[in-house]
Structures are given as structure tokens and as C-alpha cells.
Specification:
alpha+beta; 6-stranded antiparallel beta barrel; 4-stranded antiparallel beta sheet; 5 helices
């Protein structure tokens, strides 16, 4: 009888405890869901794109500004023009110097030209004299040849005339060749003289002038890639020193989101994952993106400070949709499964 009463009483007690058990279960479930919601806690990041800074190799004074901040520029567009008066004066001085050198060379060539004319005339006269003498010596040789055969004259006389005849024959053959060479040299000098006479300051060139002209061309800054002008760091009349930045261009075609993931959550993020990106300061719909890559190097989040900083890895996200995210804008990056109903109820993102 006692056992039956105890069991019945225990049964009623257990039935009365079910609300408490249900409360315990709901509490455990809520705690689990809250911690599960933390898996989707947003990561911090910012929007960046490639930048190009342009500067001069030489010192220059800004003369002309052809663009303004915010302008879209294409590759090769002239952006800034610098004063080239000093370089131009150096180019003119160098050309004048070379022109004077060429004129002096022309005078020397003209002198050589005249000397060749004199030599041609002299050798022409020499050839006539040789041919005349050869004619007379040939007659003399023909006259004494029979006498020598009959031993009616001294052998020495015969061999003297014959040697002179052979000498004149060689000269009569060599002198025309020499005159031909002189005329060829004269023709070459004639072409050089004509070229020198046509030389003017405008077409004078040299390695020094080429270097100065290249320096002059570098006194104007051109866009090396298409982009948008984000900064112009000097005004007309200001002097830019070599290596100092004159202008900055951003390239939106290579933009991306840079995020930071703590070490504890690195294994939950992989390349190719779809994430949602939203602004920290502005209100606009979240934009879908895809994790491009994750740095394998663990670094502090804030390396510039001396304070302890959270350790983690930087990762990069490309946005899949049209957007108006501004360069440098801070964003939050949400990854993992969709938000639970409890997380939304508690005001989670």
C-alpha cells in the first residue's frame, strides 16, 4: 500500500516538474543558438584599390595643370606640364655648338676638296708629259733596236733607253688609276660638303641632345594606366623635387575588400567562400563577394602601435555586384551560415 502511494505521488511530482524541465531545455537551446550566432559575427575590413603615384626624375616647376581631382584619365593622357625653359636653352646651346663644329668641319672639307682638285690637275699634266715622253722614247727604242742587234751601238745606251721606256709605260698605266681614285675621293667629299651645307640647327642631333630631349619629354607627367585622379599635391608655380609625388591616381578596375580574420576563426574561412560586405558608417544593402585569397602569414592587426594587438590573417574579397563603396571606406564582412531567428530577434546582423 505504501509503495503504491509513493509511486503515485512520484508520478504527480514528475508531472509538476515538466515546466521547469522545459525552461531548462529552452535556456540551453538559447545559449547554443547565441554561441552559434557568434560564428557569423562580422569581421572588420576596408575597401581599397591599386594606386599610382607619379613624380619627376629632375627638379621642375609646375606650369600647366590639365586635370582636376575626380577626373577620369586614360593611359597616355598628359596630366601636368612643367617649365622646360632651362632644358630648351641647353638644347639650343648644344645644337649651336654642334653646328659650329660642323661648319668648321665643312671648311676643312672644302680645303681638302680644293687640294684634290689641284692634285687632279697636277696629275693630269703629269700624265700628258708622260705620254709625250713615252711617245718619243718609243720612237728612239724602235730606232736603236736594229742597231743594237747588229752591235753598232753601245749596249749601255740601248738598256738605258729600254729601262726608261718600261718606266714610262708603268707611269702611263698608274697615273690614270691615281687620277680615278682622286676623282672618287672628290665625289665623296662633294657629298659630305653638300650634307654639311644642308645642316641646320633644327636637324642637328647627338647623344647629348637626345638625352636633353628625353629629359624635356619627362617634364610632363602622363597617366601610365587608366584611372581616376585622387590627389594633386602641388599648385602652379610650385617646384617639385626629384622623387616627390606630384599626383595620385586610383584604379577602380583592380579594387577589392581587405579583411582581417582572427587566428581562432581562420580555419572557418577558405578561398572561394561567399561573404556579405556592408558599410560600417553608411546604410546600404549588403553586397555579396567572394574570398579571393587568405594570407598564410599571421600578423598583428595594428602593427604601427606599441599596444598588444589581435593576431590574425589578412584576406581579400572581390565584390560580385555593382556598388558605390568608397575607397578607404570601413566595412564589415559577414561569413558562415545564414543568421538564426534568435540572432535576428536579439538584433543581430
Amino acid at each position: 500500500m505504501m509503495n503504491r502511494y509513493f509511486l503515485k505521488n512520484l508520478h504527480y511530482r514528475i508531472l509538476n516538474l515538466w515546466p521547469f524541465a522545459l525552461w531548462i531545455g529552452i535556456t540551453c537551446l538559447a545559449v547554443y543558438l547565441i554561441f552559434k550566432a557568434d560564428d557569423r559575427a562580422p569581421l572588420s575590413g576596408y575597401y581599397e584599390c591599386d594606386k599610382t603615384t607619379l613624380s619627376l626624375v629632375e627638379r621642375g616647376e609646375l606650369k600647366d595643370v590639365y586635370i582636376a581631382v575626380g577626373d577620369r584619365v586614360e593611359e597616355g593622357d598628359i596630366l601636368l606640364g612643367f617649365n622646360t625653359d632651362l632644358v630648351e636653352s641647353k638644347i639650343r646651346a648644344e645644337k649651336r655648338k654642334i653646328e659650329l663644329q660642323e661648319r668648321d668641319r665643312l671648311r676643312r672639307q672644302l680645303s681638302d676638296f680644293q687640294d684634290i682638285d689641284v692634285q687632279i690637275q697636277e696629275w693630269g699634266l703629269k700624265l700628258k708629259e708622260t705620254e709625250t715622253e713615252l711617245f718619243h722614247v718609243s720612237e728612239e727604242l724602235d730606232r736603236i733596236q736594229p742597231l743594237f742587234s747588229k752591235q753598232l751601238i753601245e749596249p749601255g745606251e740601248y738598256w738605258r733607253v729600254k729601262a726608261r721606256h718600261e718606266e714610262l709605260q708603268i707611269s702611263a698605266k698608274e697615273i690614270p688609276e691615281l687620277i680615278g681614285n682622286l676623282k672618287s675621293n672628290r665625289q665623296q667629299l662633294s657629298e659630305i660638303v653638300a650634307e654639311l651645307e644642308e645642316t641646320t640647327e633644327s636637324n642637328v642631333t647627338s647623344p647629348e641632345i637626345d638625352l636633353l630631349e628625353k629629359q624635356r619629354d619627362q617634364m610632363s607627367l602622363r597617366a601610365n594606366r587608366a584611372g581616376v585622379v585622387s590627389k594633386i599635391l602641388l599648385q602652379e608655380g610650385e617646384v617639385l623635387m626629384p622623387g616627390d609625388t606630384a599626383i595620385e591616381i586610383v584604379h577602380s578596375d583592380s579594387s577589392r575588400v581587405v579583411g582581417f580574420v582572427p587566428v581562432a576563426f581562420v580555419d572557418r574561412l577558405t578561398a572561394g567562400d561567399v561573404v556579405e560586405v556592408s558599410s560600417v558608417a553608411r546604410t546600404w544593402a549588403a553586397i555579396e563577394g567572394r574570398v579571393e585569397s587568405i594570407s598564410p602569414i599571421v600578423t598583428p592587426k595594428y602593427e604601427a602601435t606599441n599596444q598588444p594587438s589581435e593576431l590574425g590573417c589578412w584576406f581579400f574579397v572581390t565584390l560580385d555586384e555593382e556598388h558605390d563603396v568608397m575607397i578607404g571606406e570601413s566595412v564589415s564582412i559577414r561569413y558562415g551560415p545564414e543568421s538564426s531567428w534568435l540572432q535576428k530577434l536579439l538584433g543581430g546582423h
